[in-house]
Amino acid sequence: MSHGCIRMYPEDIAHFFQQAPIGTSVQVIDETVKVARFAGRLWLEVVPHQGQADELEMTGKLTPAIPPALERKLILAAGDLDANIDWETVYKVAFERRGYPVAITPAPPIKGGPIPLTSQAASRETEPSLPKRSARRQKSK
Fold it and tell me: Cα(99)–Cα(87) distance, rounded to whole angstroms?
């Protein structure tokens, strides 16, 4: 990460290049902590702050630090998922600051639970029946 640098996949660059006319205004938000809800889970992404990015560029290492107000930000964003936050994963993500989202709550249960067998399927034999060979194949053996 550097001052004003935006990381994107090549295919995304090509897509946005076609969509945005020259001179289009953009807003770049520099947030070290990003929290999102997706597919019934809470996700956390933490990137190095500017001092850590400079340190990383110069030394290849960064000094681990928990971002200020991390817990408060997560609890506010979590809403009804707050009791399910995996705090061990939160602190690991915060210290490592890898820059990609990590799920910090478990996947929600599948609605309706497991699919029950129908009575017809349950009454079948447990071993599958093999298809019968054609008369022609049987004669050749």
Answer: 18
CB 32 within 8 A of CB 67: yes
Angle (CA) 64-56-6 rounded to 5° is 105
What sign has the CA pseudo-torsion 40, 90, 45, 100? negative
74 three-state secondary structure = helix
- DSSP for residue 72: H
Closest alpha carbon to 52 in 1, 126, 124: 1
> Mind listing the pLDDT tens digit for each residue in 75-123?
999 999 999 999 999 999 999 988 899 999 999 887 766 665 555 444 4
CB hemisphere CA count around 105 (13 angstroms): 23
Cα-flanking dihedrals φ and ψ of residue 19, to 5°?
-85, -30
Confidence check: pLDDT of 12 > 90? no
Give the CA distances from residue 30 to residues 6, 40, 121, in Å, rounded to whole numbers and listed in that order: 10, 26, 56
Q: Enter the pTM of the model.
A: 0.61
Tokens representing 90 are 């939160």
